[in-house]
Structure formats: structure tokens, C-alpha cells
Write the C-alpha cells for this entry.
Amino acid sequence: MSDQQKRGSLSFPKILKDYVLPFLCPSSYPNLGIVLAGAFGLSFLLQMVWTELPEEKLFFSKTSLIGFSLITLFRLLALLLVYVLVTEHYKIGAHHTWGRNPGVGGFFLAFMVGVPAMMISVGIHNLFIYMELKMENPIPSQLYYYVTEEGSIYGLILMLIMVVVFPVLIEELFFRGLVYAVIPDKWWLRITIPAILSTFFAVNRLELPSLLVIGLLCSCVRYFTDNALCSCLTRFGFFCTKILLSRFIPDQEPTAVQNAMDYDRMVIYASVMGVVLGFVMIMVLLRQLRLLRYLQKNEDMRCETEEGKPLAIPLQEHFHIDFVIGVAFLALCWIMS
């Protein structure tokens, strides 16, 4: 081909038709970009409204349990809205988002992963707080939190629903369900991307290391069991273990200490031991979960079932203008927090 022919093949109309317009137009496939744009766009809008809303016009404090419950509910409903719209528009089946039944053994192993998940994440959280104080970094205030000590039965029920049940079910359905279903069928992508996005969704710098640990372990459970409910059980196991072992591995509140000298050394020692023991336990459990994944693959090959097949989405369909918008909203959520 001559140089003139090569220049003609890269003319402006051809570049516009083959590269620019496909990038600006929405994809005909479900993709990560549309999920990011919807979830973090709505999250940023709610964050701006919550930040600018004058507290004196409210009948409750933003840092009360009622205030925390309301903003949490709206943020979760935003995720649920994106989930419903995307799955209905692109006709994504429940076996792609919820997965399939891994059996009683799979559910039990998923719940047990919550034990080392708690030990590792709380230990890393405590050590991270100590490192921040040691480096004399200012402890930033959280964007969404509550300080109310509830002793009534109604307050405890509200706390259980809005702090544990709803966030676990909806966040896992979104990040380990919808996000997991639309990303490419590579094990390292399906484990890391939902974990990173769920960590960033919290908009809490002090909890980044511990939330990333929980996200990675939940994504591993989702991948090995091929079931989103299993990752929910992992987080339920995390909360149950956190309550049972709170006396042995306490969760250090950032506002309870002023500097590294005030930090209880027993908390540091317990955190280190918790991280070490947690890693030993998680290696054993992940080995069993890998065996479960191996058996599922063999069953898929033998029966040629459709349940184990991922969505066939070309890689380039993930990178449209909605992907750039989604990443921009994610960055804005952190910049404006």
C-alpha cells in the first residue's frame, strides 16, 4: 500500500466514524462505564445535597443515628436504582448477578471467611490509625457517621437494619452482583475491581485499608463460589465475629486517642496477632473454596450448563464516554468529601 493510500485510510471522516463516534455513543452492551456513571453520579449528587443541607433546618442531627440512617438509605437506593435499570434494560439474568447455588458447604465456608476477615481488617485498621498518629498526620473527620449511643430496642433495631442488613445485601448485590457480571471474565479483574469500587464507595480515608481487605475477601468468595449471597454471608460472619471478639481485638476509634503516646500497646499487639492468625486461617479456607470452584468447572464441562457462562462483552465496549464520566464522579466524591 502506498503512502497516499495509507493517508487516505486515516482520513478525518474515517477517524470520526471508527473511533470518535463509538466513544461518544453509549454501548449496546452492559458495561462497567454505565454502572460507574450511574452509581457514582447519584452518589455525588446525594453527597453534595447532604453536605450543603443546613442542619438547623432539620429536626435531627446529621451525626445522629436517624441522620446516618437516612443518608445511608438514599445512597443504597441509588445503587439499587442503577442495578434495576441496567439489569432490566440489558436483560441481565439473575444467574449472572446472583450466581448459582454452591451448596450448604459453600455457604458455610463463606460465613467462616468472615472470621479471619474481621481479624485482618480490624487489625489493619488499628495499625493504620497508629501509623497515622505516629506520622502526626491529622485525623480527617468522616463524611457519613453517627455518634449516638442507642439503648432502646427501636434504636438497636434501626442500627441493625441500617448499619448491617441493608448495606450488606444491597452493596453485595451491586458490587459483587452487577459489577461482577459486566466486567471481563478474568479472575484478577473480577476480584480486584469490585473490591476497589466498593472501598471507594465508602468515602472514608481512614477505613481504606480495612475496607479493601474485606472487599478482596468478599470478591474471592464471590468468585470461588459463584454466588453473591455467599459474599453477603462473609460480611455477616464479619459482624458476628466483631461482636464476639471485641474484647480481644477492639476496634480503635480514631477520636479516642490524641497522639501515638496515648495509644494502648495491648491494642497494637492484639492487632498484629489478629492479622497473622487471620492470614493463616484465610489460606486454609481459600484452599477449600478453590476446590469448590474446581468442582463447579468440571460440572459445567460435563453438563454444558449456561449458568457458569459469563456475559459475552467485548473489552472495548467498557471504554465509552460513560466510563470517563463515572471515573470523574468517583474522583469528585473524594475531592469534595
